[in-house]
Design a protein that fits this description.
The protein is α+β, with helices and mostly antiparallel strands. 15% of the residues lie in helices and 29% in strands. The protein is built from three helices and eleven strands, in the order H-E-E-E-E-E-H-H-E-E-E-E-E-E. Strands 1, 2, 3, 5, 6, 8 and 9 form a seven-stranded antiparallel sheet that branches. A four-stranded antiparallel sheet has the order 7-4-10-11, with no helix packed on it. The longest helix is centred in the first third of the chain and has 27 residues. The termini are far apart.
Amino acid sequence: MTRSIRGSRRAAMLLPGIAAAAGLLLSGCGAGQISETANKVPSVQGANIQAGDGKYAVRGALVAYPGVEGYQAGDNAPLNVVLYNDSQDPVTVTVTSPDARDVVITTVAAATSPSPTVSPSPEQSPEGSPSPDNSASPDNSASPDSSPSPDDSPSPSPTGSPSTGPARIEIPPLSYVQLNTEGEQVLQLVGLNEALLAGQNVTLTFDFNGETVTTPAPIAVPLSPGPQPSPIIERHTEYEGEGGH
């Protein structure tokens, strides 16, 4: 009777110790391991780089999605980017690209709207040419009533529009400039050198007061898959075996 009591007491004392050791082993299984999500790259399109020992940064450099057909040589392409200045001094950023004729800064409306086609005015068309009867006579040319009105003054040409200018951006100290379709202005690649498709890259160079950094910027891909092509249905005009009759 005495041995059985002592054996049961020993078993009762060992059980808590075994449970504690098992808990330590289980807790140590995950120690020192890296989760699968830690090595995943964020699924945000665009190039992210730094310059000037971290004082300047380029975030989300991305060329707009061109559609299924892509960009053709000579096309213009909107360029989205956010520029950061983490220094105590203002900085001027100049953006260039060897893959385009020029890089400019323009309004979002001008970059995303198709270029208007110039149609001939009635004065320039043959039907609208002035007849000999309506030709100006020397009396009419000297008349004071024929002076141009303010409404007839020539309008400025589109090339002189202040909405588009060189890609030089002033950034105040400890600030940033947003140049994408979420803001009011955007960068634009003018005159691409070659045809480009979604998923390809263009080379961009950012100059922060002499601190230069070059990076490939991707061309955006669609966030949703494109429509499936219509199935090809083969139509047969004869039944099998009728060709020999």
